[in-house]
Design a protein that fits this description.
Layout: E1 3-7, H1 16-29, E2 34-39, H2 44-48, H3 60-64, H4 70-73, E3 75-76, E4 82-85, H5 91-97, H6 107-112, E5 121-126, H7 132-140, E6 143-149, H8 158-171, E7 177-186, H9 191-204, E8 208-214, H10 217-225, H11 229-232, H12 237-252
Parallel strand pairs: 1-5, 1-6, 2-4, 2-5, 6-7, 7-8
Antiparallel strand pairs: 3-4
Length: about 260
Amino acid sequence: MGKIIAIANQKGGVGKTTTAINLAASLAALEFKTLIIDADPQANSTSGLGLNPKEITQSIYECMVGLAKVKESIVSTELDYLDIIPSHIDLVGAEIEMINLNNREARMHDALAEIKDLYDFIIMDCSPSLGLITINCLTAADSVIIPVQCEYYALEGLGKLLNTIKIIQSRLNPNLMIEGILLTMYDLRLRLSNQVVNEVNSHFKNMVFETIIPRNIRLSESPSFGIPAILHDAESKGAISYLNLAKEIITKNGLLQAV
């Protein structure tokens, strides 16, 4: 059975989509069958992998409200081992539509049940909120990666997210684990970046990934080409960092022999 990992932080601009796309692509490059689920109405993971959200007819929205089967919504990408279930703006309305549905917090969990054994990893790109869609993702996930940018206000809202995770663990998903806190947008030249790294490591210790994602022009450019950084420039610092993150996760999950 595949491992479902949610990429979550209700704070915007911390690198959730960049992480979702490039971690999934790195796992696929290492020949682990990987699915990325775009659970953000902004659909940036969808466009970042070369799909036009306006042309999507079956997305994660239809899967969650019962209008489509998950298997029928999977789209292949340029990487052999990477598929995506895309998103579009209609996902905004899903939270309202699901209010009166039975078991509304588990719609994503139930939808993914039929495909979980088809993949080694399922990566979910969550929206920048703690609304019902994100709660669905955390209820469906085995673990969560929390991106934290190496900038001022880095820890703002992190306590609220960790509290939400505790509530979900106690009420909806007792098996949910924190895969790790991922430091992103690191700039070696800035004293502030180094201060944030030290502060996060002193607060959270073993919860923090060893891999740190740097600010990198190739990571910024690649979405405009509709490809992950590993296809845009495999030797860039950004692409190498996400490959290292993928290897760290693989090692942590006891799959080192396959790398």
